[in-house]
DNA sequence: GGCCATGACTTGACGCTTCAAGTAGCGGCG
DNA sequence: CGCCGCTACTTGAAGCGTCAAGTCATGGCC
């Protein structure tokens, strides 16, 4: 069978380490400083940037890369904490809209600076602009090869 | 506060997508084709490459980036499936040794080709050797900045 | 207009991870 | 030689994600 060369294996293992440690670190910082997990942060962030701070569950699921079921559970918890509200779309009752509350917005506003600073210190500031650009491009190439059709 | 430029944000979001989808895809393929999760695969792989197919729980935890508790649960499940045995280190009863069984080795041998082929098709083969090398280097730089002292 | 298929969630059970307490072997110190 | 503390796990409960099975509104087809 077609094994990997040493150099390929080294690079791959570096990527594996990145995949395991970087999300972990991001999550730690958010949880410690703001009591939010990474996906929860993403949900609040996406809501805050949308027109009336409203988004459909399905759109949210898509942009946060979460399954609809996961998102439903997660938003229910956020709702319990008063950071988000849910209501059926008035125009079409099949859709559910998630709405960022003021409390949710404030929580996000409190979390964002520390989060961005953390991302900066781990990723942005340790690479040259060119290195960062290339990293993003390589990531895009890889992600584009992934078959995400098997979801739901 | 010091926000990110558009280019920085783009690259960062690409990295976020990589972190969420790549592990997911690897896991899917392993589970579907071999009934193993990514960490389970790593555990079997590490054991198979060590001298007498024996490793201490703590060493395994370190190389697989799992907490000792997680590893303990996970190895217990692997033991239940007959892929691994556990016994206290004869020389120092505080250590526990995990030992790959023949069945475990066969399971790994069955899983490896598909796994490698998948990694190849998603990562190795879509980047030039130079791009792959740079990706690994960037990953290393980032990982080296992560403070892992807060574990256990 | 009634029925049925479909799409968009929601729910509950199960599995895995984490977190906080345990347990247990050994080395050291009095 | 007996206790003490440390290290290396193990365990049980609680939280989160996934999977399969609901629910419920709508749109189309007769």
How would you describe this structure to a colleague?
2 copies of one chain form a homodimer. Chain A has 152 residues and is mainly alpha-helical. Chain A has one domain (25-145): Winged helix-like DNA-binding domain superfamily/Winged helix DNA-binding domain (Arc Repressor Mutant, subunit A). Helix content of chain A is 66%, strand content 9%. The two termini of chain A are 33 Å apart. The model of chain A has no long low-confidence stretch (mean pLDDT 93). In chain A, helix 1 (6-34) packs antiparallel against helix 5, helix 2 packs across helix 5 and helix 3 packs across helix 4. In chain A, strands 1-3-2 form a 3-stranded antiparallel sheet. Chain A has helices at 6-34, 38-49, 57-64, 68-80, 102-122, 129-145; strands spanning 54-56, 84-88, 96-100. Chain A binds a DNA duplex (30 and 30 nucleotides) through helix 3 and helix 4.
């Amino acid at each position: 069978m077609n094994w990997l060369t040493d150099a390929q294996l080294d690079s791959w293992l570096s990527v594996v380490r990145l995949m395991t440690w970087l999300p972990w670190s991001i999550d730690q910082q958010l949880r410690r400083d703001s009591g939010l997990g990474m996906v929860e942060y993403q949900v609040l962030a996406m809501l805050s940037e949308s027109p009336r701070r409203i988004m459909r569950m399905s759109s949210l699921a898509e942009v946060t890369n979460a399954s609809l079921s996961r998102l439903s559970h997660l938003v229910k918890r956020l709702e319990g904490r008063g950071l988000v509200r849910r209501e059926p779309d008035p125009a079409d009752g099949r859709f559910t809209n998630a709405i960022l509350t003021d409390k949710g917005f404030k929580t996000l506003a409190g979390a964002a600076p520390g989060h961005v600073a953390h991302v900066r210190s781990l990723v942005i500031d340790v690479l040259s602009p060119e290195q960062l650009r290339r990293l993003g491009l390589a990531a895009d190439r890889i992600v584009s090869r992934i078959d995400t059709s098997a979801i739901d």
